[in-house]
Amino acid sequence: MLTAYIFCAVVGGGLLALSLFGDFLDGDVDADGAFELEGDFDTSLDGADFTKLFSLRAIVYTLFGFGAAGAVLHAIWSGGRPGLTAVIAGGMGIASGALISTVFGYLKRTESGTMEGEESLVGLGGEVRMAITEGGMGEVRIESGSRQFRMRARADDPEGAGMTLEAGRPVVVVDVKEGVALVAPLEMKLLED
What we know:
The structure is a single chain. This protein is an alpha+beta fold. 40% of the residues lie in helices and 21% in strands. Strand 3 and strand 4 form a beta hairpin. Helix 1 crosses helix 2. The longest helix is centred in the middle third of the chain and has 29 residues.
């Protein structure tokens, strides 16, 4: 059973570390998928939706809680109480998964930590990640404090001169329309102002 505890702790802890340090490594990792049940099932009980408990984030925390608690209890009791260890580890895993689901559900319902909207990006600086061709679309990375956002982008070209922005060029967000950032080269925007 110790092998199962260690496996769960390593896999769950590894996925947690990957999602936690993804921002530091400039990665796009998000561990909040959800499993869909097909068919006509009544998944609610007094307004609670139990399909939300089976998100990828909850499963990862459950795995980690089960593995870590099981490994620690196995070490404390020297493998002497395998049944009790399994029951307590299972309870700890389910409790940690449920706690995290509840916390993230609350944060999602109250919209804590969300951006004010697309208009909050106007005026921010960024960098072209994928070249924006004449009349075409590309991608920019926009920096807001310590956070970075990647968005589809189009060149803001009021004169219709057919502006092309190469990758790596600094830009400023002039407007955001339907999820697409309209950007201008930073030096051009400074000259206009």
